[in-house]
Amino acid sequence: MKKNLIIIILVLGCFLTGAAQNKRTAQRPNVIIINADDLGYGDLSCYGATKIQTPNVDRLAADGIRFTNAHSTSATCTPSRYALLTGRYPWRREGTHILPGDAALIIPTDRTTLPLLFEKAGYQTGLVGKWHLGLGNTVEKNWNAPIKPGPNEVGFGYSFIFPATADRVPTIFVENGKVVAADAADPIMVDYKKKIGNDPTGREHPELLKMQSSPGQGHDNTIVNGIGRIGWMSGGYKARWTDEEMPLTFLEKAKQFINENKARPFFLYYTLTEPHVPRMPSTMFKGKSGLGYRGDAILQLDWAVGQIMKELELQGIAQNTIVIFTSDNGPVLDDGYQDEAVTKLNGHTPWGIYRGGKYSSFEAGTRLPFIIKWPGKAQRMISGALVSQIDFLASFGALLNQSIPKSDAQDSEDLLNAFLGKTKTGRKVLVEQGVNSLALVQGNWKYIEPNAGAPLSRLVNIETGNSPDPQLYDLAADPSERNNLAAKHPEKVKAMVAALEEIRNK
Ligand code: NG6
Ligand code: CA
């Protein structure tokens, strides 16, 4: 009798736990992170732009939380994306600077990554878009056979990417480690040291280009689709993308992933190529913004966000999906092509009120658009909390009840309450990375390390934040970093130097 009772209790217990588990699983939200490429703080109408309208991202912001002090870790792509996926400051590791298109994978395969965390929590995980974190174990690789390790080996169950940037060869898609439309009879070869094969280059044949490259910026090697690229490639003619179509292909693949995984919790990392160079929008967007192709590419990006939101509605999962929209680093106008980004700017301010831009340790380098929508959970508001993309790992770990080994994601902070709008308090300190130097933000204060780099990057006409002297700014009184207060507050400088050293040596 007693034995029967115990069995009944045990069975009931299992049943209840199972039911609770199912309920929890059913309630777990899908998560989509949309990461734009080189989109600045001031590039969206919801962040104050008046010369361009971005209604779809604006709607996202109106329905969710719009952050005004949110950052990537770095003012360029590779390190910024490294941090987002690993929860670790990229400058702790050698070789996390902007990678060539044939680089080896730099994300460790034996540590917790953002997609691995979701996978551990029972999610389907997918990556669609720009990668730029290397592929395979070595620079020399066979593009005509499966390439490993890559996104799938660091936690993405599905991946559809291009390897580096739109302006670097190889200009091809890779799906789950295999080049799409590869042809054994026309093997792909890639080289970053010397010309390979017989394809014309922009330098030799500028008359073949539909968009001229800017002098001295290196975008004059192999011509693909009438555009000179960084690096040389040959072969793979059927596999090469056309720039006008490539973002649409990413959008289709992202929608397909959503569609196929709508019945289970999924994590989708959708990494747009807009408005990175070469800006060559689809025909339907060419000329639409009046700001040249950079503006058109932003309209195209905004449209893609709207399409994703529509798909979520259509599949009936919009209510249970967290959508995050952000960018990998600050804005740049002439980044290698004569595409009228400068001449047709028309008073638009991609950097908002902030100083600098891409490549800069001034605020516009890493202070970026950052929006979180979670219907019914993240209340509608504007938040000035200091947050970073590096905090996704610890914060989603908290949301999904996943522990992260101490050795992993060491710089990621659990900011779930800030991400959900329960508090407007975020980080106490954040390190920002320009190209040559680090900066530390602590409350209203910002300190930029002295360094010998040029104060102006002439190629892109951006103030880098470099100075041989220490710089100290009061971001509350002087958000545009015009007034260096270092000489006035030597004790503050000293304290911030020490604080930065402590983080560096952690
Ligand atoms: C720079 C390129 C720039 C762009 C950038 C990467 C030159 C002179 N400039 O080195 O055109 O490709 O790398 O951009 O080569 S990022 O957004 O991926 O960091
Ligand atoms: Ca970028």
UniProtKB/TrEMBL annotation:
Alphabetical list of PROSITE patterns matching this protein: SULFATASE_1, SULFATASE_2
Signal sequence segment: 1-19
Gene3D superfamilies linked to this entry: 3.30.1120.10, Alkaline Phosphatase, subunit A
Limits of the Sulfatase N-terminal domain: 29-400
SUPFAM superfamilies reported in the protein's UniProt record: Alkaline phosphatase-like (SSF53649)
Superkingdom, natural source: Bacteria
GO molecular function, one term: hydrolase activity
Keywords: Hydrolase, Signal
Alphabetized CDD domains for the sequence: ARS_like (cd16143)
One family name in Pfam for this protein: Sulfatase
Family of this protein: Belongs to the sulfatase family.
PANTHER family the UniProt entry points to: N-ACETYLGALACTOSAMINE-6-O-SULFATASE, SULFATASE
Name of the featured protein: Arylsulfatase
Organism of derivation: Niabella soli DSM 19437
